[in-house]
Amino acid sequence: MTRLRSRGTKTSVGGASAGRWAARASALYDGAYARRYRVHDDELSGSEPERLFSEWLERVCRAFTAPIDVLDLGCGTGRFFWAVSGARTIVGLDASPAMLAEAQHPYRQERISARVTLVAGDLFEHDFGARRFDLVYSIGVLAEHSPLDERIVTSVRRWLKLQGRFAFTTVHPESPSVPRTVRRTLGTLVLPVSVGPLRRRLRDRLTSGGLYADETRIHDLLDRSFAIESLTRMESEAHLHCLCVARKVSE
Known about the structure:
- By secondary structure, the chain is α/β, with parallel strands linked by helices.
- It has one domain (2-176, 211-248): Vaccinia Virus protein VP39 (Rossmann fold), CATH 3.40.50.
- The protein is 32% helix and 27% strand.
- It has helices spanning 20-28, 31-43, 48-62, 97-103, 150-159, 182-190, 196-206, 215-221; strands at residues 2-6, 9-13, 68-73, 87-94, 115-120, 133-138, 160-171, 226-235, 240-248.
- It has a nine-stranded mixed sheet, sandwiched between helices.
- Strand 8 (226-235) and strand 9 form a beta hairpin.
- Helix 2 packs parallel to helix 4 and helix 6 (182-190) crosses helix 7.
- The longest helix is centred in the first third of the chain and has 15 residues, at 48-62.
């Protein structure tokens, strides 16, 4: 394992082979893309999407008694590290080493007081161990760039301490950004009157196997181990989102 340090931020690069989604992200988010993305972080300063997402994350953090240990799942360039209040430690996991290189100098770095560790790894394969974090959050990743499915929920449940929270955003299948194909339109019309296996197949099709997620899918995935504290919709310049905060109530 290689460790790099920069301005108090530590990066760990694991040697395990990347899975399909991690390999895809690593190839897509190369050095040139990561640099453009980091520049865009600064361009978002004061924008409505930045305000909405950061205020939502700040509200989640205020529900805890500080200090807390936090995981950013799919952290990218560390765009929202600064909005995590009351944290003792922040771990940022991402599949792209190039994005993590930019995260060593994240947006609004001067407002980050927690100790930050950056980990290159596949969110479907990496294991942080049991009951390590008070908060796991993910903004703009799950049900957008990678599936939100049972594997993710099982891993997050393992990593969270009891009464810890899982806060995440998704792209809603009714988002204007989702292509309105003939099949999707027909499936949307048939779904309310379908039952049994047909209904399950239609829902899986409409959510593209977890690449979109609505309120029903989120409720289905967050089993009795989680209590949903809030589940709302939000429109950004790009998508219609679901914003969910769920508390781990049992192992």
